[in-house]
């Protein structure tokens, strides 16, 4: 933008002030002179031009209207009060939505809504339900399975899990249970030594009379010499939950129960990959947003020469982020790893409008707060508004996107730009015009009668002091 677009702006300005046509770059005459010379109407319409005499004369309609009407919001007290109450109402709705915002990334969000996978998932949930996740109980170290005490510990672990609110009742799949049934059916007793237990277990696993038994071959891992069970796994099925938050609580609950056991065991499920974000995304989002706001505060202290203005900017940013979370609830978005990244990216857009307006207010040399804010809005209001409009135009093609990633990005970008412009160009100017830092003028100018006639003498000038 600085080296490429800026260079083109310079060339454009040179063309304008040289009275050259925008397409042919030929020198043209003013509209008045062409009318006086009796030029054809078509030529007058398409080939007239003159260099603007004032900065306002160079404004397009999109620039002139905001520059004319934005300062009016800080000139009337009734309008200020109405704006403050309107934004308080918006903040209330945002707080309500933020406190009810759901967390989680459904699997259906990953694929397009009209894909084959979407049809399958819809039919599966309609006729067979969501289904609970199959959870593995993995024993990753050798266990003395042939000892009654160890079998009692394993059984106690199953009992605690099956009696919890997280697991389906009677959904217990254990090779050890089937092995004991196998011993009973073959009129054999439970081996009490390691060697006998391993030998009998190998016969059970290779037993070809029942297909069910052969499936346990992948659940028991023997050492290279075949004399030790170095690892094994058993299964339970988690209960059915309707929300991702409940699924995250279920995962933590199962892990807590498993960790209480003295056995070398841990619980795992392929679905836990998705559940992990359910229990961490909120904390990660709040932490990241907090760090970003703190960084914006520190940078603002450097760029804007008054802590009170920075405080108002941070308050406006917090309101924008709160309303952003709230509007996500009303637009059926959830807080997940995808939207978390998009929210963090949006922090930069929230500070953009607010920081420019606050800086314009602080650098204005008008005498009253209202005049300083009006002057500031006239100077930066149009660029801020244009930046927001062009940002929205840049993502407008995603409005009909089928992918959740792109559609959520469009919604959040639209929200953050509207909220940023609303708070930066409407609410923040009202706050600054009412409570912004004032300017003290220490006038040390000499009286006219006391001014020296010496042309080389320099009178004292008024100094501005922010308070």
Structure write-up:
- The protein has about 475 residues and is α+β, with helices and mostly antiparallel strands.
- It has helices at about 5-15, 30-35, 40-45, 60-70, 75-100, 115-130, 150-160, 175-185, 195-205, 210-215, 245-260, 270-305, 305-330, 335-365, 370-395, 405-435; strands at about 135-140, 165-175, 220, 230-240, 265-270, 440, 465.
- The strands form two sheets. Strands 1, 2, 3, 4 and 5 form a five-stranded antiparallel β-sheet that branches. Strands 6-7 form a two-stranded antiparallel ribbon.
- A hairpin with a 6-residue loop joins strand 3 (about 220) and strand 4 (about 230-240).
Overall mean pLDDT? 83
Q: How big is the Rg?
A: 36 Å
Number of helices: 16
What are the segments in which pLDDT stays under 50 over at least 5 consecutive residues? Answer: 442-466
How many beta strands in the DSSP annotation? 7
Strand content: 5-15%
Counting helices, strands and paired strands, the structural category is alpha+beta
Can you write the helix and strand succession as a string? HHHHHHEHEHHHEEHEHHHHHEE
Global morphology: elongated
Spatial gap, N to C terminus: 36 Å
Q: What does the main sheet amount to? A: 5 strands, antiparallel
The helix content is 55-70%
Concise structural overview:
The protein is an alpha+beta fold and 467 residues long.
Write the SSE topology.
Elements: H1 5-17, H2 31-36, H3 41-47, H4 61-69, H5 77-99, H6 116-128, E1 134-139, H7 148-162, E2 167-173, H8 175-185, H9 194-205, H10 211-214, E3 220-222, E4 229-238, H11 244-260, E5 265-268, H12 272-303, H13 307-330, H14 337-363, H15 369-395, H16 404-435, E6 439-442, E7 463-466
Antiparallel strand pairs: 1-4, 1-5, 2-4, 3-4, 6-7
